[in-house]
Amino acid sequence: MSERKIFACGLSSPVWEHFGFYMKTENGIEVLDKSSAICKICKVSLVYRTGTTSNLKKTHRITSFPHKVKTYRYVR
């Protein structure tokens, strides 16, 4: 069995360098399955709610792989 490909999402947060989405078929059309974000390092699936990446960058990415990722500072 082949490994599922993780697709980039084109969203603006730097956290998306380390996460992406699987594809799913809806009405015969391939679309991104944005219900879960997939870690590109370990392939774990995390709940993704449109508009927030807090659980991705705080809960998983930084705590699981601090040596492989950048820490981001946002300027407002």
UniProtKB/TrEMBL annotation:
<dbReference type="InterPro" id="IPR003656">
    <property type="entry name" value="Znf_BED"/>
</dbReference>
<keyword id="KW-0862">Zinc</keyword>
<protein>
    <recommendedName>
        <fullName>BED-type domain-containing protein</fullName>
    </recommendedName>
</protein>
<dbReference type="Pfam" id="PF02892">
    <property type="entry name" value="zf-BED"/>
</dbReference>
<dbReference type="InterPro" id="IPR036236">
    <property type="entry name" value="Znf_C2H2_sf"/>
</dbReference>
<feature type="domain" description="BED-type">
    <location>
        <begin position="13"/>
        <end position="58"/>
    </location>
</feature>
<dbReference type="GO" id="GO:0003677">
    <property type="term" value="F:DNA binding"/>
</dbReference>
<keyword id="KW-0479">Metal-binding</keyword>
<keyword id="KW-0863">Zinc-finger</keyword>
<dbReference type="GO" id="GO:0008270">
    <property type="term" value="F:zinc ion binding"/>
</dbReference>
